[in-house]
Automatic annotation (TrEMBL):
InterPro entries: AAA+_ATPase (IPR003593), ABC_transporter-like_ATP-bd (IPR003439), ABC_transporter-like_CS (IPR017871), P-loop_NTPase (IPR027417). Belongs to the ABC transporter superfamily. This is ATP-binding cassette domain-containing protein. Residues 8-244 form the ABC transporter domain. It comes from Kaustia mangrovi. GO terms for molecular function: ATP binding; ATP hydrolysis activity.
């Protein structure tokens, strides 16, 4: 069950590339221990928002707070320490094709920790077991399925026992069964490790199966037009476009689009 303490606060965020504003005045909070989904149509700025949240792109305006710490006001040292609490799985979840699954998972520990080789081997085996890949560490990425590759990417994202996992389209390209397994794994990791999960996805099945909360970005309004529990939004949002999206219907653009839910 999700706790209610706000873990992340996004406050009046404007995201832009030069003169091109992608989204403006986006505000929401992510509760500690929740699975939070960033959704919206293609090109509305979901991945861009995730990149702002993990320090890759600086806001044009607004703030992103972790607890009461304003991310972009932190010193480099403070920011590095905060980043250590993040686990990130990017779209594609690329593994190095010339390394075994174990070597891929061990890589961040080898690069960014001073653990001994034996400790790294133990930690790697533990992370692989967490994602159900015990016994597969010796295989090359080309020898495992797409679903297993995603799980290996997740094991690597868990290298430093993150408090927050950021996942960009984790189930993209997976068949429905592998996608379902990945959803179950994300839920288990949240329950077992107590991590907060922030996920970009437009897989509705996934959203309804595991998300506690969401923000809905709109490419036309260039702002968030809804937030809350996805099932509640699907059935009761006062925004017709959001209801249509979540019910997989063509939106009726003649209906009034209300700018918040
Ligand atoms: N580095 C960049 N420079 C300029 N424009 C960018 C850059 N990255 C993204 N954009 C633009 O910002 C907008 C949002 O892109 P983004 O990838 O965040 O959307 P998205 O909602 O994640 O899309 P999708 O669901 O298709 O993956 C798009 O118009 C995109 O072209």
């Amino acid at each position: 069950m999700a706790e209610t303490e706000p873990r992340i606060t996004v406050e009046a965020l404007t995201m832009a590339f030069g003169d091109k504003v992608v989204q403006k005045d986006v505000s929401f909070t992510v509760s500690s221990g929740s699975i939070f989904v960033i959704m919206g149509g293609s090109g509305c700025g979901k991945s861009t928002l995730l990149k702002h949240m993990i320090g890759l792109i600086e806001p044009a305006a607004g703030r992103i707070l972790y607890g009461d710490r304003d991310f972009y006001k932190l010193t480099e040292d403070q920011r590095d320490r905060l980043l250590r609490q993040f686990g990130v799985l990017f779209q594609g979840g690329a593994l190095w094709s010339s390394m075994t699954v174990s070597q891929n998972v061990a890589l961040p520990l080898e690069l960014y920790s001073s653990y001994s080789a034996a400790t790294i081997a133990d930690l790697t085996a533990f992370k692989l077991s967490l994602v159900g890949l015990d016994g597969s560490g010796h295989l090359m990425p080309s020898e495992i399925s797409g679903g297993m590759r995603k799980r290996a990417g997740l094991a690597r994202a868990l290298a430093f026992d993150p408090e927050i996992l950021f996942l960009d389209e984790p189930s993209a390209g997976l068949d429905p069964i592998s996608s379902r397994r990945l959803d179950d794994l994300i839920l288990q990791l949240r329950d077992l490790l107590g991590v907060t999960v922030v996920m970009v996805t437009h897989e509705l099945e996934s959203i309804f199966a595991i998300a506690d909360d969401c923000v809905f970005l709109d490419a036309t309004a260039k702002t968030a037009i809804a937030h809350g529990d996805p099932k509640t939004l699907r059935d009761h949002s006062d925004n017709a476009f959001v209801r249509a999206f979540l019910n997989r219907r063509e939106p009726d653009r003649t209906e009034t689009v209300v700018s918040a839910s």
